[in-house]
Write a structure and sequence with these properties.
- The structure is a single chain.
- The protein has 75 residues and is mainly α.
- It has a domain at 23-72.
- The protein contains three helices and no strands.
- The longest helix is centred in the middle third of the chain and has 17 residues, at 23-39.
């Protein structure tokens, strides 16, 4: 089995945000949470809402075009 892209979750002061997700995506996130827990040796999966921010952050930081624009000072 290949490794998941999301590693251990770091604690940080949260900012509350409400989002609506399709039911199918919510179920997939639950499946991912269980796989993440197994891979990282957690006794139980993290709540789905704890996974979303690190996933979005990883996505943004892997977008080379965005990273280049940000470094150049462009919005």
């Amino acid at each position: 089995m290949s490794r998941l892209r999301l590693g251990p979750i770091v604690e940080e002061k949260p900012v509350k945000l409400a989002v609506e997700l399709p039911g199918s995506l919510f179920r997939q996130l639950g499946d991912y949470a269980r796989a993440h827990a197994a891979e990282n040796g957690l006794s139980e999966p993290l709540p789905v809402e704890r996974l979303i921010a690190p996933m979005v952050e990883r996505f943004i930081m892997s977008d080379r075009g965005f990273v280049r624009r940000r470094r150049s000072g462009s919005p």
